[in-house]
Amino acid sequence: MRQAETPRILVVGADGQLGRSLRMLAGLRPHEAHYAFLSRPQLDITQAKAISAWLDAHPVDCLINAAAYTAVDRAATEPARAHAINAHAPGLLAQACTARGTRLLHVSTDYVFDGRLDRPYREDDPVAPLNTYGRSKQAGEQAVQAADPHAIIVRTSWVFSAWGSNFVRTMVHLGAQRDTLRVIHDQVGGPTWAGHLALALHTLALQPTGSVPGGPYHFGGQPWVSWHEFAQEILARAHARGLIAQRPRVEAIVAADWPSPEPRPANGRLDCTRLEALLGPLERDWRIGLDQVLDAWQAGQP
Ligand SMILES: NC(=O)c1ccc[n+]([C@@H]2O[C@H](COP(=O)([O-])OP(=O)(O)OC[C@H]3O[C@@H](n4cnc5c(N)ncnc54)[C@H](OP(=O)(O)O)[C@@H]3O)[C@@H](O)[C@H]2O)c1
Q1: What spacing in Å lies between the alpha carbon of 18 and ligand 1's midpoint?
Q2: Å from CA of 66 to ligand 1 middle
Q3: Domains along the sequence of the chain with CATH
Q4: Bridge partner residues of 183 (DSSP)
Q5: pTM of the model
């Protein structure tokens, strides 16, 4: 990356939760980087020629891949599509980046792990995905690393934001309609506000060339909770803001009693020591992000 100048950063998949959060961050920090944002109609990352054409016409120092196929259950019925977007396309991006000396920041998931460890996952723990989506993301990590050993892969977990479909939106929506909700308590992880993830990626993108070794890094929210605990917190805060008229009862159930087409890891906790050793302490308290999301909805934003 050119050191002395303001870095140029391209975000692909710009209309998703992470992409929109990066867009918002870029607007708040216009002097730190020159961002370009491309959503799927503007650049389909499965199209190698389109990637090359864009990068040749608009050279950048860093490319952040915020594009993904994230429908975990639907991936089981569309494995080829999930693989094309989550595995093949990141490999194409990595080839394009390495050929041009562009730093690639690729985003992956705690679902590359099987969740059977009794402690938070470190970057060098063995991957063993339980479902189609996780396998496609693992294949994406492999494709990226094979094409570009300098690429940085940030695994994250339980992403939520004010946009798109996510657990917070689902809970507030259902909480407004039902007296009782049934939520899984034997899966634990770190809910991650997309705004915090965006800031971590932005900070990584600004690091000088050669200062960030390639490979996987973990970034997940704190404190760790079960889905059941997370739901209770969401509903309490939504109720306090008048977003739901009454707080429903939240019944704790086990994952085995939830009719989910695809299995999920019981332990999605990510040990973020490696990234924080590099960048210093990072903002990742999901309760701050949750307040931001609920405040935005209370103010009538989408
Ligand atoms: N969401 C989570 O809970 C979660 C958890 C762990 C890790 N992650 C990872 O975090 C990253 C960001 O996730 P997110 O929640 O922001 O995802 P998201 O909201 O589903 O957004 C993904 C975006 O990628 C776009 N996209 C799909 N196929 C594309 C293609 N071929 N070319 C260009 N863009 C394409 C989608 O566009 P369309 O809508 O038009 O298809 C969408 O705007 C992903 O790598 C994901 O795997 C997410």
Answers
A1: 8
A2: 6
A3: 8-161+191-222+269-284 (3.40.50.720)
A4: 252
A5: 0.97
